[in-house]
Design brief:
single chain, alpha+beta, three-stranded antiparallel sheet, 2 helices, flat
């Protein structure tokens, strides 16, 4: 398993700027809870799933199974 940043620099820069403005909370979510703090609970749960391969909700991270 490998977790990488999205190879699209424009997306990464946009999401990172949103994270700065939101205090580290997913800029794609309205609520600010422990579950939406980056790296969000949704993606942490997806990482635990051995069959999941793909992007987190905001497309900042990508989990690869190879």
């Amino acid at each position: 398993m490998v977790i990488k940043l999205n190879p699209n620099k424009e997306i990464v820069d946009t999401i990172k700027e949103g994270l700065k403005r939101s205090g580290g909370y997913c800029p794609c979510r309205r609520e600010k809870t422990n579950e939406t703090k980056c790296m969000c609970k949704e993606f942490r749960d997806q990482i635990k799933d051995p069959n999941f391969e793909g992007y987190c909700h905001c497309m900042l991270y990508y989990k690869s199974n190879s």
